[in-house]
Design goal:
The complex is a heterodimer of chains A (about 425) and B (about 140). Chain A has about 425 residues and is mostly beta strands. Chain A is built from two helices and 29 strands. The radius of gyration of chain A is 20 Å and the shape is globular. Classes of the chains: A mainly beta (about 425), B mainly alpha (about 140).
């Protein structure tokens, strides 16, 4: 028994009075410190306390401006900037995982308090700024009756949408404000249970392939190994035929994918496992190797064995790839996109990462958009806060960033699924 | 003419009290067996069963504790065994509660502590039954 942790680790749902017990060391970069796994009698939980933005807006660096370009959405997650500058927003909430244990009932109730109460939109909304003044005066439904759409990609005149249960496509003509008809299926996606339901999407540079991120069906196999068939993987789908193969495995929850604009490499942000301590396991940003195995569930950050998994698999552990860059444990990275020089000199080369924010940590982290600088096509240095002010130290939380998309004309689009707003950050001349 | 009512005391605990108390034993036995099955098979469903059986056991034990407390607070109906019974029953609930928290961990993180606490809870619940049933509630005649 771990009676030493019986006291001190327990903090539930904002009733927490003091939270100085846990280490504050930032855990960024290619070689994060990995403390020994630990878990108290209760998991540390501090849940966001939702509050309206009012007149406030998120904070951005000096020389940048931010404004809300769409409000009253129905849970915006990911966005796509179309060639004519229009923005598509995927809205919805998925997942149909049943409560298996008493714990699931209680934790589900507590966690739901930190998210929006708006019903799932299950639609795509189109935003248009016709006169280029930065105000998106048109906000209209592009397509509806989708099933928790998340990942979006445009290849020539085909718009791909990753619903929580299938990959579908629409024909898209430039200037269109509404889809011409219901979508056509490209391929079915694993959707049973859908503990991690988001299906991230990116198209290869030549448009031949689509990459789909499919999250695990549990935190750490607590729904059984059979639930994990075709989970915690990235699929490569042939855009023409819908044929697919497994591109990478052991990626617990690949919540956003992006293709490097020069090298064409596939990059992902991945959310790692919970309940083994405040600084374990780091969520990460990595170039995804074809055929690579990234550890889940058997090990984390390379070959650090997770003892909660039975049966164990030492061979798989030995083959696990160490990710490129730690974003810090529990930050919940849900968006990633490569920057462009139009974003300004300091933010020209690198990726923006949307961090939804932690629940499994007494001292909350995330709740911001960071910029990870790149040099020579690799992440270097510490992440820089790019959009903040989502959460106050007293727990008041006005927003939670999800998808981030770089508008090639020089703007960052940030979806906020707590305030149901889309933000747009622009460099000021 | 004075009427003398001779008070009669029951030898056994209240039938509902008895059912709730004894009912805990098969539930806690089920917890231990499910834990053992999970350890032997790695099939997670056994661990899920164990988690719910603990909740069932805790509910029964909690209500039983109310009965025991009422008995405890009625000095004329208590003998020396009732206090020991109450303490053991309370220990059953407390250990069972920590076992419930332990079983809220994911997958193998429940083990081996969960198995140990399940056995301790089972033994405590049997001990509580052992102490409760022979307990005579005879008081001194008025």
């Amino acid at each position: 028994m771990r009676s030493a942790h019986f006291v001190g680790m327990v903090s539930v749902a904002g009733v927490l009075a003091a939270c100085g017990a846990e280490p504050q060391t930032p855990q960024y970069g290619p070689n994060p410190e990995l403390p020994a796994p630990k878990r108290g009698v209760l998991p540390s939980m501090v849940i966001a306390e939702p509050a309206p933005w009012g007149d406030r807006v998120p904070t951005v660096p000096e020389g940048y401006a931010i404004r809300a370009i769409a409000t009253d959405l129905k849970i915006p997650r990911q966005t796509l900037v179309l060639p004519n500058g229009d923005i598509l927003v995927a809205e919805g909430r998925g997942g149909n995982a049943p409560s298996l244990k008493p714990k699931d009932v209680i934790a589900g109730y507590i966690k739901a308090r930190g998210t929006t109460s708006v019903a799932s939109g299950n639609r795509l909304t189109l935003l248009r700024d016709a006169d280029g003044d930065g105000a998106y005066e048109l906000q209209t439904v592009f397509a509806e009756n989708l099933n928790a759409p998340y990942g979006l990609a445009l290849v020539d005149d085909t718009l791909y949408v990753a619903n929580q249960d299938e990959l579908v496509k629409f024909t898209y003509r430039e200037g269109q404000t509404q889809a011409e008809g219901p979508p056509e299926r490209v391929t079915e996606l694993p959707s049973e249970i859908n503990h991690h339901w988001t299906k991230a999407l990116a198209a290869s540079a030549d448009g031949r392939f689509l990459y789909v991120g499919i999250g695990s069906n549990s935190n750490i196999t607590e729904r059984g190994m059979t639930a994990e068939v075709d989970r915690a993987v990235i699929w490569e789908v042939d855009a023409q035929t819908g044929a697919r193969r497994t591109y990478a495995t052991g990626v617990r929850n690949p919540t956003a994918l992006a293709v490097h604009p020069e090298s064409g490499e596939l990059w992902a942000v991945v959310n790692e496992r919970d309940e083994i301590g405040p600084d374990l396991v780091p969520d990460y940003l990595t170039a995804v190797q074809d055929g690579g195995f990234y550890g889940w569930p058997y090990s984390y950050w390379g070959s650090n064995v997770d003892d909660r998994v039975r049966p164990q698999d030492p061979e798989k552990v030995a083959s696990a790839i160490t990710p490129d860059y730690s974003l810090g444990a529990h930050v919940a990275a849900l968006g990633v996109d490569f920057s462009v020089p139009e974003m300004g000199a300091q933010f020209a080369d690198g990726v923006f990462v949307g961090e939804h924010g932690s629940w499994n940590r007494a001292d909350p982290v995330g709740y911001k958009v960071v910029f990870v600088p790149f040099t020579g096509g690799r992440p270097t240095g510490e992440p820089i806060e790019f959009v903040g002010g989502f959460r106050d130290n007293d727990g008041t939380t006005r927003g939670r960033p999800v998808g981030v998309t770089v508008d090639p004309r020089g703007a960052l689009i940030v979806a906020d699924d707590l305030a149901n707003v889309v933000w747009r950050v622009t460099p000021q001349p | 003419m004075a009427v003398v009512i001779e008070r009669r005391y029951c030898d056994a605990i209240h039938p509902l009290h008895a059912v709730l108390l004894a009912g805990g034993v098969p539930l806690y036995l089920g917890v231990a067996l499910c834990d053992w099955a999970y350890m032997a098979s790695f099939h997670i469903q056994w661990s899920n069963f164990a988690s719910w059986l603990i909740v069932g056991g805790l509910i029964l034990t909690a209500v039983t504790l109310v009965f025991a407390l009422v008995d405890l607070l009625r000095p004329r109906r208590r003998d020396q065994n009732i206090a020991a019974y109450f303490v053991v029953l309370l220990a059953t609930w407390v250990v069972g509660f920590f076992n419930a928290l332990l079983h809220a961990r994911d997958a193998w993180a429940v083990m081996p502590g969960g198995m140990i606490l399940s056995l301790v809870t089972l033994l405590l619940s049997i001990a509580a039954v052992w102490l409760a049933f022979p307990t005579s509630r005879m008081g001194d005649p008025v």
